[in-house]
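Note to self: keep these together.
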Amino acid sequence: MTDPIVAKIEANPKYHELRRKRSTFGWLLTIIMMVVYYGYIALIAFNKPFLAQPIGDGVTSLGIPIGMGVIIFTIIITGIYVRRANGEYDRLTAEILKEASK
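Structure:
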């Protein structure tokens, strides 16, 4: 026993488009984030002298700004996803719900 509105939504081609787009984009961002994060971890594990290089005459090493870059990159790709979700995905969802309620 399924709700007729749920059946209309599942039959709508825009619903399948939304699922495909959201899934593909989510996996793409996940893979990019994993490459950046695990790349940084690999640098820590396999090239410590590179990360230990001091910046200028101070005591800060190159690993600190690279690590901060990983954190900033995470915030940026989260913002990219939120912007797309609030724009394209919300628009498609509203269209799907409007068509299903007819």
